[in-house]
Amino acid sequence: MSENEILEITQEILGLTAGKIDLNIPIKDLPNWDSIKNLMLLNSIEESKNFQFTDNQLESIVSLRDIINIVGKENE
Amino acid sequence: MNELLSIIRDNKKRFADIKGETISVRVFSNITLNMLEPFLIDSYLKKNLKIQIKDFSYSSIIQDSINTDSSCICFIHFDSLNLSGEPLENIGNKEINYMKNLFDKITQEVELTLKNLESTKEIYLSTLSYHSYQYINGQDDSVRNYIEKTNEYFYALQEKYLNLKVINIDNILFESSGSSCINKRELFNSVAPYKFSFLTNLSDEIAKFSSLKNGKIKKVLALDCDNTLWAGTIAEDGQEGIKQDSSSKEGKIFKRIQEDANFLAKNGAIICLASKNFEEDVLSFFNTKKTSLEIENISAHKINWRDKASNLKEIANELNLGIDSFIFVDDTDHEINLVRTEAPEVETLQVPNDINNYPDFFAKIRNNFVAQQSKTNKAKQYKQIFERNKEMSSSDNVEVFLEKLNIKLNIYKNKKETISRISELTQKTNQFNMTTKRYTEKEILELTGNSLVFCFDASDRFGESGITGAAVIKQCDDGAIIDTFLLSCRILGRNIEIEFLTQILLTLKRNNVKTVSANYFETPKNKKFGKFYEDFGFRKKNDELFELDLNSANIKPINYIETKHE
Fold it and tell me: Which of B7, B8, B10 should we substitute to test contact with A (largest number of A Cβ atoms within 10 Å)?
């Protein structure tokens, strides 16, 4: 799953227009964010890549950049 | 592409394309089911229905269900992974009294919620799943026993609440690969235990039953031939190169598909072929080889080199059926995408790439059809329609053609034996249905006590059509009002609707009725019959009401239709 795809799915789940997402701010500070949308985002990444974030990985996620880094490592 | 991303994007696009009202849905559950939303919208859109989820009620189900709008569709899901409100608690370790009280509380909550939702359009209630409980807590016979008893009670509630349909969750769990569709981390984190596969299958199941209630019935299964009904390409491999029997592995799979299609034809589905081929090659194959799908069970076919969207539209016209009652199965991306674009109302299904998955893929199609069909073989009736319409379109003078048809009509009034069929007609008829009022058998029975309920069966030289039209006439202050007037699309095009109305009006006139009013409520489906009453001679009072003065109206039966009142 590419960085672009993670951005696209985040946009769709949060209902945002392209270019409005700052990868480095805390995910919970993104417009329209709530816990259900967070769950949908993580589940969609997990199901798409057929892997599961570990509890440690989940705890370390603050921003979208963190997700992209974890997914990038899983891709290696 | 990410599955959720493609569903959300597709939903947006199709939502804009599909006409008609948007139905509100409320979800009541003891787990977090919010992720169901995109999947449920997708499943309804596949059935040409638009929904919006009004809300998800989580903790105070009974309270939240009060004052639910009657136009809402409601889904109640008590999940056995959170029976006590604490997903980590193993209730099997508790005292027997604790368990008894817990299940009593659940049944009470369900019944109170159902009472609150009694006047709503549709309610779907999940069974409790012993299997999901078992995946987390291990086997426990006493819990299984309580779950089975509770589910029996849920099913019995369907007798009491006629708007209720119970959904078997264990079947859905099984289809979603059992325990692998449970996300244990999220069960304990956010009480959202299910993965997308389960949510997809659950949504499909709800939308399947809901589409039947909303008149979105699939009647026609249109099948490609090469690599859909058999392995191989008839034009290239020749008849001998085609695999469709038990002599090869691939042949066994396609034999099973043909058997399922044949079974469907015998149980009310209309089977058609839409294939790019030489017509004589395909027909000769059916006539000379032992095919499990028998040629007499194929109602219509378009076998040529034209695009399949146009062919499907033509078949729909020739069978007098709406194109949205079609499911089309094909193996190629090109044909599937073309039909999706050119005839978006058709539900398109592509043969799986891995042919080993084809039997269970087709079994789902079969089960969806079986859930909605009357168990009669309609192949013969639709073959008659196909042949009649073909002959009519090649005839220079339609009136002369109709005169030679030898049409006979038997009209029945308030006859008990016809109640079930009349109710079925009100539930299923969408095109020539002037008010689209849906009546249960009980309601029709009540109407026969205080109104006139007519129906008819028809025949002509091509064959018999059975009971295919009905009308409900109610008394009003200054005369009578036509509350319901409908004809099955199977018999349209022979002026039978005019003769049926004529005979009803003559009956009313004989009973000294002076004025007859008629309702017409426009829907996207019945639009083309909006002028029916005016063309007959009724005066338009407003968009939904027409009136006829029986004393001054010139009502004459059609001379080429022989009518009997029974």
Answer: B8
Chain A neighbors of B35, CB-CB under 8 A: 36, 39-40, 43
B5 chain-A contacts, CB cut-off 8 A: 5, 8-9, 12, 44
Chain A positions touching B193 (Cβ under 8 A) are: none
Superfamily the domain A3-75 falls into = ACP-like (1.10.1200.10)
Put simply, the answer to whether A55 touches B185 (Cβ < 8 Å) is: yes
> Residues B557, B562, B566, CA angle at the centre, nearest 5°?
100
Give the residue from chain A lying closest to B3, CA to CA. A48
Task: Give the integer Cα–Cα distance in Å for B244 and B139.
Answer: 43
* Domains, chain B: 3-213 (3.40.50.1110), 220-380 (3.40.50.1000), 396-565 (3.40.630.30)
CA B313, chain centre distance (Å): 19
Q: How far is B17 from chain A (nearest CA, A)?
A: 19
The residue ranges of every structural domain in chain A are: 3-75
HSE (side-chain half, CA atoms, 13 Å) at B490: 27
At B51, which helix (H) or strand (E)?
Answer: strand B50-57
| Structural contact between residues B78 and B132, judged by C-beta atoms closer than 8 angstroms | no
In order along its 566 residues, chain B shows pLDDT tens digits of 678 888 998 899 888 888 788 999 999 999 999 999 999 999 999 888 999 999 998 878 999 999 899 889 999 999 999 988 888 788 888 888 898 999 999 999 999 999 999 989 899 999 999 999 998 889 999 999 999 999 999 999 998 888 899 999 999 999 888 888 999 888 888 899 999 999 999 999 999 888 877 777 788 999 999 999 999 999 889 899 999 999 999 999 999 999 999 999 988 889 999 999 999 999 999 999 889 999 999 999 999 999 999 999 999 988 888 898 899 999 998 899 889 888 888 989 999 999 999 998 998 888 777 666 555 566 777 777 777 777 777 777 777 788 888 899 999 999 999 999 999 899 888 889 999 998 888 899 999 999 999 999 998 887 788 899 999 999 887 789 999 999 988 788 889 999 999 999 999 999 889 999 999 999 878 888 999 999 999 999 998 999 999 989 989 999 999 999 98
Decide the pairing of beta strands B545-549 and B122-126. unpaired
CB pairs under 8 A between A and B: 47
Show the CA angle centred on residue B89, arms to residues B85 and B92, nearest 5°: 115
Q: Which residues on chain A are in Cβ contact (under 8 Å) with B3?
A: 44, 47-48
Min Cα distance B346 → chain A (Å) is 27
Report A:26-55 residues touching B (Cβ under 8 A). Answer: 35-36, 39-40, 43-45, 47-48, 52, 55
Residue environment code for A25-49, b if the CB has 16+ CB neighbours within 10 A, otherwise e: eebeebeebeebbbbbbbbbbbbbe
Question: Measured between beta carbons, which residues in chain B are less than 8 angstroms from residue A48?
Answer: 2-4
Regarding pTM above 0.90, the answer is: no
